[in-house]
TrEMBL record:
InterPro entries: 6-PGluconate_DH-like_C_sf, 6PGD_dom2, G3P_DH_NAD-dep, G3P_DH_NAD-dep_C, G3P_DH_NAD-dep_euk, G3P_DH_NAD-dep_N, NAD(P)-bd_dom_sf. It catalyses: sn-glycerol 3-phosphate + NAD(+) = dihydroxyacetone phosphate + NADH + H(+). Gene3D superfamilies: N-(1-d-carboxylethyl)-l-norvaline Dehydrogenase, domain 2, NAD(P)-binding Rossmann-like Domain. It comes from the Eukaryota. It holds the Pfam family NAD_Gly3P_dh_C. It is an enzyme of class 1 (oxidoreductase). GO terms for biological process: carbohydrate metabolic process; glycerol-3-phosphate catabolic process. Residues 59-73 have a biased composition (Low complexity). This is Glycerol-3-phosphate dehydrogenase [NAD(+)].
Length: 498
């Protein structure tokens, strides 16, 4: 029994025991399909992209069994037509090559994670020329960088003169400042002009510290394609007074485009070194972008304001039909690598909040460890931190999360564990206690320009909780703020958690 069969069997078994509601059941089937069948399909198309016919794709049925073998394996779910139709549309979308346009991709941000995501996306753009333009624009916040004498790129004729970071990336294909030692694909184009980098792009990937997103949106608002679609890889939230907004929703509303969210247990330097990991992408394809199996729009052409599927509150410009569609399959195609497994879901709120709030808990864990307490204390902080995260989501985004995001997805417990044991927020808060320094000092001396998201997220979330009078229900979050502000010591934590 291969992985896909096994997945279906498990889902069916769980459903028979009434563990899963029918929608969850369907969502899980879809997830298994994206994770297992799509890469195989891609591989087949890669081997023979021009000549592939539907018959060529039939071997994929070893992953997705034929109707008869499916029937013998597990009784079909209610909506059995769903996946065969999708499979055919995948074939149509990827092989007929009847789209006059391809998606142009821009990554906005070029830090540790920004550059890593640009790398994996650029690898996929080169591998899927029917769907994506080969070159990937990467906007770089320009700065001068001096290559040290022992750098392999050191040029004696230039000496130790500072050079533009964009020049270094485009010449040596390495981001020596934010992702040193990792060779980058040559189809990444480092661009210091934000407006030029986003011009005509149908896909915008936002990947920079969350505090800069307001300024970025203001600068690009009038320069992006109105039909562009986004994915935010940013971990943070936007808070003003007693209002809180997810970063992807902030982007959607301010640019009037639809934007999903990517988040997971992802340490950039490990992924850049192609060590395997998983991630979660949340995306609700807007109704105006949905197409039937013949590639025709499913929207009836009437007003598309308040797009129900995506939750977008304004009128969206549809993605033109001369572009390949942008649905879960295409996002999986853009982000999946052999070393980066993508799970597609619809829970924008759960994925975004899990990614933002775990940074507060990671700081708490670093403090606890720096104080000399070990795994048992850290586990207590993680458990309570996750409890507060889910409480926060239910209290301030009622009815908008899927609990399975926190329990089953990389964006949930996966990210919590990795962040509390090895990420930058954890590392710097641990050092802060060990050196008896404010965490901001450690950030400056240890990270060479990289930014901690946990400090500002803690302050923003705590100020929001105060505005809502909800501090008492969030003792972990509030304690972290007080330790950051050096108002209390780590040893006071257990008393506060009572
Ligand atoms: N590094 C990682 O392992 C992961 C990071 N993330 C998230 O990805 C997002 C981006 O983080 P990184 O790429 O790691 O960034 P980073 O912390 O490595 O680098 C900071 C970036 O901010 C840029 N910058 C500095 N001043 C700026 C300004 N005024 N305007 C615009 N940009 C400016 C710098 O040029 C640099 O590219 C964050 O929300 C982070 O939480 C998510 C998963 C993994
Ligand atoms: O989000 C991350 C891990 O999933 C990275 O966290 P840090 O920003 O603390 O390194």
């Amino acid at each position: 029994m291969n992985c896909s069969h096994l997945g279906q069997a498990l889902i069916h078994q769980a459903r028979c025991r009434s563990f899963l509601s029918p929608p969850t059941h369907l969502a899980l089937r879809r997830r298994f399909y994206v994770q297992t069948s799509v890469p195989l399909l891609q591989q087949q198309l890669l081997q023979s992209p021009q000549s592939a016919t539907r018959a060529d794709l039939e071997p994929a049925s070893s992953l997705w069994p034929s109707r008869s073998s499916r029937a013998s394996l597990v009784p079909p779910p209610k909506n059995t037509r769903h996946f065969p139709v999708r499979r055919y549309s995948q074939f149509t979308k990827m092989t007929l090559n009847n789209f006059t346009k391809k998606h142009k991709v821009t990554v906005i941000g070029s830090g540790n994670w920004g550059t890593t995501v640009a790398k994996l996306v650029a690898e996929n753009c080169a591998e899927h020329p029917n769907t994506f333009e080969k070159d990937v624009q990467m906007w770089v916040y320009e700065e001068n960088v001096t290559l040290p004498k022992d750098s392999k790129h050191f040029d004696a004729s230039i000496g130790e003169q500072p050079q533009k970071l964009t020049h270094i990336i485009n010449t040596y294909h390495e981001n020596v400042k934010y992702l040193p030692g990792i060779p980058l694909p040559q189809n990444i184009v480092a661009n210091p002009s934000l407006v030029d980098a986003v011009k005509d792009s149908s896909i915008l990937i936002f990947n920079l510290p969350h505090e800069f997103i307001g300024n970025i949106c203001r600068q690009i608002k009038d320069h992006i394609a109105p039909y562009a679609r986004g994915i935010s890889c940013i971990k943070g939230v936007s808070v003003t007074d007693d209002k809180i907004e997810l970063i992807c929703n902030y982007i959607s509303e301010n640019l009037n485009i639809y934007c999903g969210a990517l988040s997971g247990a992802n340490i950039a330097s490990e992924i850049a070194n192609e060590q395997w990991c998983e991630t979660t992408i949340a995306y609700n394809t807007p109704v105006v972008d949905k197409r039937d199996e013949n590639g025709r729009p499913v929207a009836d052409g009437e007003s598309n304001s308040n797009d129900v599927a995506s939750g977008h509150s304004k009128e969206l410009t549809p993605l033109p039909l001369d572009y390949p569609p942008l649905d879960h399959d295409e996002w999986a195609l853009l982000f999946s690598r052999p070393y980066f497994t993508v799970s597609m879901v619809s829970d924008i709120v759960g994925v975004s909040l899990a990614g933002a709030l775990k940074n507060i808990v990671a700081i708490a864990c670093g403090y606890v460890e720096g104080h000399g307490w070990n795994m048992t204390a850290k586990t207590a902080v993680m458990r309570r931190g996750m409890q507060e995260t889910i409480r926060f989501a239910n209290e301030f985004f009622p009815g908008q999360i899927e609990p399975s995001t926190f329990w089953e997805e990389s964006a949930g417990w996966g990210d919590m564990i990795v962040s509390c044991t090895s990420a930058r927020n954890w590392r710097c808060s641990k050092l802060a206690v060990e050196r008896n320094l404010p965490i901001e000092e450690v950030e400056k001396t240890e990270l060479n320009g990289q930014k901690l998201q946990g400090i500002s997220t803690t302050r923003e979330v705590c100020s929001f909780l105060r505005a809502k009078g909800a501090e008492e229900r969030y003792p972990v979050f509030m304690a972290v703020e007080r330790i950051i502000n050096q108002e209390i010591k780590v040893e006071e934590i257990p008393k506060l958690f009572k």
